Amino acid sequence: MTVTALGLPAIRRDAGGCPADMPASGPLVDTFGRAATDLRVSLTDRCNLRCTYCMPAEGLDWLPGDELLTRDELARLLKLAVTRLGITNIRFTGGEPLLYRGLEDVVAVVAALRPRPEIALTTNGVGLARRAAGLAAAGLDRVNVSLDSLDAEHFAAITRRDRLSDVLEGLSAAAAAGLGPVKVNAVLDRASGLEDAVELLDYCLRYGYQLRIIEQMPLDAGHQWRREATLSADQIFAALARHFDLSPDSAPRGSAPAQLWRVNGGPATVGIIASVSHAFCAACDRTRLTADGQIRSCLFATEETDLRALLRNGSDDDELEAVWRAAMWHKAAGHGINDPDFVQPQRPMSAIGG
Known about the structure:
By secondary structure, this protein is an alpha/beta fold. It is built from 10 helices and 12 strands. Strands 7-8-9-6-5-4-3-2-1-10-11-12 form a 12-stranded mixed β-sheet.
């Protein structure tokens, strides 16, 4: 498998060759010159599935309600991000964002902002069938639906829930509501994943969905992730290439996390997100806001910046902006998964947001 070499960024310097100072306005940049234009917003850490690579069968201790951002606090931060920090894309995640009360109202608030950002949702698809039309009416542009297997037994083993039919109905409803391109996110189980990948791509080609296969990352609640127990991007590519003609997509990758491959000559594509084996940190354009109001500069950051406390202590928008900028200014060059001293973040994926 050949991938675009993005590597790690170089330190940003001024005209005299010295490290640049943090700008007080303009794009939300870091010391390496990357601009964050994509905001990932975790609305809740709760989920109605129990995926083996994310959380234990009994679930987790959910965040107390008084620690979560209120609707007004969330709306204020989203407005700040768009109007002051240059955010052009907002993606709502979880946990499972469909469990967040008032999701349609929050989508409508963001859709009314100017300049209007693109609004996306990453969901497990359970409950999407009855919500897709309303979300589209509120202003949602598109969805990514998590689906790791089309085999009911495999699906139940991975998610610990028998909800495959609900997810498939959700995908169909999203397409009917115009929430396209509808993307399918798959994290493959090592035992059955290579077979699942072929079936998933066949399915997505048949219904016009876009498949994105994601390497399993060290973000599980039990910190049991082991590289040798996961499938690499190269293994996934090789399995797909035995059944499909895959050629590099000619479109520039930009900051997209997925390396795209045209399937059987196109125009359909399949994406492989090789977060572990072929890091793409140099082009990262993301900033993250957790459900309890913490800014994370990276999915794998071990430190967070508390905006909730500032909100509740009466800080004005100027101070909130400055603190958010400072948090991103010090973003690390890369996630460090492949470094010998890598430390997995304490929060699992369900509490960080995808």
